[in-house]
Amino acid sequence: MRILNVNALLDPVTGGGTAERTMQMSRALCDAGLDCSILTTDVGLTNDLLTRLEGIRVTAYRCFLKRFYLPWVRYSEIRREVECADVIHLMGHWTVLNALVYLAAMAGKKPYVVCPAGALRIYGRSRILKIVYNLLVGERLIRNASAWIAITEEERAQFEAYGVERDKVFVIPNGIDPEDFPNEGETGFRDKHGIGNRPFILFVGRLNAIKGPDILLEAFCRGQHAWPEWHLVFAGPDGGLLSMLKSNAAKCSAHDQVHFIGYVGGVEKSVAYHAADMLVIPSRHEAMSIVALESGISGTPVLLTDQCGFDVVERVGGGKAVPATVEGVQAGLVEMLSDRAKLTVMGNRLRDYVRDNYTWVVVVRRYLGLYRKLFAKA
């Protein structure tokens, strides 16, 4: 069976969790014996990324307008790629590449599935353009799919606005590969960033409003008197808030304990998770935080908001879910930082839960079952 995965971005810096999901899912499908290929743009596509995708054919079109990730490609080229596939998987929603592949799939009568990964809501910037996109192609793209995939149970409801009954939506969560997160180099990470033996809180993600780093910073500064020895590390690229965050951090009484280290990936990201005492995900909106899985497989407990689609963290004793407000995050910090030894216990519980339920070896079985059904009907 030949699977074509489509995602306008494979670069984890700009593409975030959906880029990571596409790469990991493609590797898992390839390991399961399927012929898997990827359509994308060349934005941030490095040799290191291609090395991670060894054995998978990657077709990357030149992007000539990065603001909207417009690919420089003839429609006939898209048609050829689609005709070679048995099943097509569209990741995300608001991209021209998805629209072109959808039109080619409809013309060639090829089965395709959509996995918006939380992108169906009109949220954030370019609201008018997103409304126009849906009117022109987006609503039909979702409605006419052969199957629909949500990352969480909560996300299923978002399909209803596009005319898809929630009971018809499959839930296939994010997955994780434990081999990507070895435990090594913790001391070097702490020394490099001036933390030493002191405990620290980690944030991983783009520094933009949706991810909520401003919520975390204010909560940390407000309650700093309750945890004077703790440091706060922001690991992620600037998404528009870095200047404001640095300015606000300078006004905090614990300003020398707040660190902005930029984007981390690969081994360095693994080291950051293992070195941290806990991860905080203060997102205002998220389908299912992949960094929660990354932290979990590293044995690091998680404090997240109830907008992350992963409240199970609290139910299994691996962390805590709180409202997406400064007060909510501050209360969560007060509770979790009160007993550092307990954090180790919570991290171990979360690691066991993630290992049993969210490795790609487990998750990919759901894709295989769905794809086989679609292939049999085609």
Give the key terms.
Rossmann fold, 378 residues, 43% helix, 14 helices, alpha/beta, 6-stranded parallel β-sheet, 8-stranded mixed β-sheet
Q: Can you characterise this structure?
A:
The chain has 378 residues and is an alpha/beta fold. The chain folds into 2 domains: 2-175 and 359-377, Rossmann fold (3-Layer(aba) Sandwich); 179-357, Rossmann fold (3-Layer(aba) Sandwich), CATH 3.40.50.2000. Helix content is 43%, strand content 17%. The protein is built from 14 helices and 14 strands. Strands 4-3-2-1-5-6-7-8 form an 8-stranded mixed β-sheet, with helices on both faces. Strands 11-10-9-12-13-14 form a 6-stranded parallel β-sheet, sandwiched between helices. The longest helix is centred in the N-terminal third of the chain and has 20 residues, at 12-31. The radius of gyration is 21 Å and the shape is globular. The N and C termini lie close together (12 Å). The mean pLDDT is 92.
- Measured between the Cα atoms of the first and last residue, the distance is 12 Å
Q: What is the count of structural domains?
A: 2
Number of helical elements: 14
Query: What is the arithmetic mean of pLDDT?
Result: 92
Query: Strands across the major sheet, in which order?
Result: 4-3-2-1-5-6-7-8
Instruction: Give the helix/strand class.
Output: alpha/beta
Beta fraction:
15-25%
Helix content: 40-55%
Architecture blueprint of SSEs:
Blueprint: E1 2-6, H1 12-31, E2 35-41, H2 47-52, E3 57-65, E4 70-72, H3 75-83, E5 87-91, H4 96-108, E6 112-115, H5 127-143, E7 147-150, E8 169-171, H6 186-192, E9 200-204, H7 213-222, E10 231-235, H8 242-250, E11 258-260, H9 266-275, E12 278-281, H10 290-297, E13 302-305, H11 312-315, E14 319-322, H12 326-337, H13 340-357, H14 360-377
Parallel strand pairs: 1-2, 1-5, 2-3, 5-6, 6-7, 7-8, 9-10, 9-12, 10-11, 12-13, 13-14
Antiparallel strand pairs: 3-4
Helix pairs in contact: 1-14, 3-4, 6-9, 7-12, 10-13
